[in-house]
Design brief:
Residues 164-214 are annotated as: Disordered. This protein has 362 residues and is α/β, with parallel strands linked by helices. Helix content is 37%, strand content 17%. β12 (310-311) and β13 form a beta hairpin.
Length: 362
């Protein structure tokens, strides 16, 4: 028997969802203390997914608050010369991100729904804030004297509701019944495609139609990383710049090297990658870039081997070691301490011996 699909209206705050983060940074139900339950309603997968996405949006804002209140970071609007009526994005800067004369850490997340300050939404919801957010990396970096920049490579467009389209009047050059026939054929075609999906509901909810307005010079992760390099990282005072990039963030970093090879080589001391999605052949990186990556980068990849076990790289770009986990989304968190040790070892070595530090570390 068909059932009514509930409307897509969900709480706007964690409190209204009846969830909260406990003292260990774990999301728990306020009344029962239980973990978040995805299947809140049986046989309503689309509704459950929409509910999960609504919670995810709340968590995004929650992480922004942590960046601002716990980490004392501030937003920098992109593009830097944005007009009042164009869509914008932002990154987060520590108070000394541009002025710290010694060290700067740049954090680049992977692709998907995650926004500034997050590694993986699933970890935040199902595990804890430490594993799913960049907060531990930010606080540790600040404790060790780094300025910090938190990039936001997935905030690429403003999504707006499409205006309602009025039915066109029949053209004077066409028979008056032709537009109606066209509309009827179109309705039949669309209806057939949707029928199978909606057949179990008596009143399926209609989703709002939207369109995307790209953010100027930040319409993709690659564009964003290049833009932030040109307008922020390259202008920072730090003598030693370190980059940490997860998954697709690694691909965006390699694309940055393709576009700004000499600048990156002159400013960046070391790069920590976690399960990076880059491919030096598909991205057509130069031999000189590959050689530089061999000496200055290390990729912690998902593997059943113990943490830091050296692995044979598939391509001749940078050393690979085990992240100590087979779960892609956990690679950054599990390798947290060893990444900071890697950065410290690089600082202790002369620039000509960075590769020796890597070998010692591995």
């Amino acid at each position: 028997m068909k059932k009514d699909e509930p409307p897509f209206t969900f709480p706007k705050t964690l409190e209204e969802f009846e969830y909260a983060f406990n003292e260990y940074g774990q999301l728990r139900h306020i009344k029962t203390g239980e973990l978040f339950v995805f299947n809140a309603r049986e046989d309503l997968h689309r509704w459950n997914q929409k509910r999960y996405e609504a919670l995810g949006e709340i968590i995004t804002q929650y992480v922004y608050e942590l960046l601002e209140k716990k980490c004392n970071m501030t937003k920098a609007i992109l593009p830097v010369d944005a007009t009042e009526d164009e869509p914008t994005s932002f990154i987060y800067l520590s108070p000394d991100a541009m002025s710290n004369p010694s060290k700067l850490l740049v954090l680049i997340q992977g692709s998907g729904v995650v926004r500034a300050g997050q590694w993986a939404r699933r970890l935040i919801i199902n595990q804890d804030l430490d594993s799913g957010t960049q907060i531990p990396f930010i606080t540790r970096a600040m404790e060790e004297g780094y300025g910090v920049m938190v990039l936001n490579p997935n905030e690429n467009y403003l999504e707006v509701e499409k205006p309602a389209m009025s039915s066109p009047l029949p053209s004077a050059t066409e028979p008056s019944d032709e537009p109606a026939e066209k509309r009827e054929r179109k309705d039949d075609k669309e209806g057939k495609k949707k029928r199978e999906f909606y057949e179990k509901y008596r009143n399926p909810q209609k989703e709002t139609e939207t369109e995307q307005i790209p953010i100027r010079e930040n319409g993709s992760s690659e564009e964003h990383v290049l833009y932030v390099w040109d307008h922020f990282v390259s202008k920072a005072a730090a003598k030693n710049i370190f980059i940490m990039a997860h998954s697709y963030g690694g691909l965006s970093f390699v694309e940055l090297m393709n576009q700004r090879e000499m600048q990156v080589k002159n400013r960046v001391c070391a790069v920590a990658l976690t399960d990076s999605a880059h491919n030096i052949w598909l991205q057509e990186t130069s031999k000189s870039t590959q050689d530089w990556m061999q000496q200055h980068c290390c990729n912690w990849v998902s593997s059943p081997e113990p943490l830091d076990t050296p692995l044979d790289p598939m391509l001749p770009d940078c050393p690979q070691v085990s992240a100590g986990t087979e779960r892609h989304e956990l690679t950054s968190w599990v390798s947290f301490n060893t990444i900071f040790r890697f950065f410290s070892e690089v600082l202790e070595c002369p620039s000509s011996s960075h590769h020796k530090c890597l070998n010692t570390h591995s």
